Amino acid sequence: MFLRKENNELAIICRSPFQVLCAIEYLRSNIIEDYTFYLLSFSNDDKSEEISANVLGLYNIDYIVCRYPKLKDYFPLLKSELCNKYNYILCGNFFDAGTINAIKQKSYYVTFDSVTNTLRSLFSGFLFIKKRCLLNNFFTFFEYEDLRANIKKNDFSHVLINRNKINEKDGIYIIGTNSRSLNHFLDEKNSVELHLTRLISYLKNKYPNQFIYYCPHRMDLNNKELNSLMKENGISIMSTSFPVELNFLINDITPFMVVGFYSMAMNTLYRLYPQAYFFNIKLAFCDKKMKRQYQQIEENMELNGIKSLYLQ
Prior knowledge:
This protein has helices at about 15-30, 45-60, 75-85, 95-105, 115-130, 180, 190-205, 225-230, 245-250, 265-270, 290-305; strands spanning about 10-15, 35-40, 65, 90, 110, 135-140, 150-155, 170-175, 210-215, 235, 255-260, 275-280, 305-310. By secondary structure, it is α/β, with parallel strands linked by helices. Helix 1 packs parallel to helix 2 (about 45-60).
């Protein structure tokens, strides 16, 4: 059950750590102090909830968790505990905003989501077809071209204030991937471990004066082989309980270069750090279906400005 502060008209609902950080930026940039912050969760064992709570703790923000393991509880919950109690609702998730808007169209909504332009435009168009009220208030660092929308740019300038800086301002950051999962679709001569070995050698030869950091995927935090590989090559491992984008922002890291293996985090980082160099490392898939799937990801990344590099 949600709780509500007396005479408080503003509610914030988020689902992910990234949405939480966007919400904090919105609150700070608009100097908003009176609100109630909610974390929505589908289960009692939600890692995203734990990380989101850690982010809120960094900024000393109180929050309330609401879990609904069954989807049938979702719509009654939003209607009775949010729409009927608050006139202003900030939604981190675009779907939540659409649902609330359909329930109660006279309220003011702001969404700050990491949904792609295509999906957002399609959903916005769907709402128009259904004659719903337009979800036209966005606070985002993504490029969103829609003359019908009221868009405020998120530059994350306020969440960085008074944060302690770590590491060097310059440096090369390797964004890890789930090696165990991907290796199922690669032959032994082209495993993730071998690709990383080639990448490290390439970076050391081409950029000898740059520090190199490795940001492991959460599934590889205890990967002994990869950890040994980094240690042998003098690579600093940046283990964190936060998603890599949040780790960069919270610690005010300004990378010289970011390289990774088809990681969606690179799209976000590219928009946050347009002055840095970005490369996606191509993998040699032996599975045709996966090859087609990752080729589409590669093409999308190149459209966003991230070049691909194949190392032999």
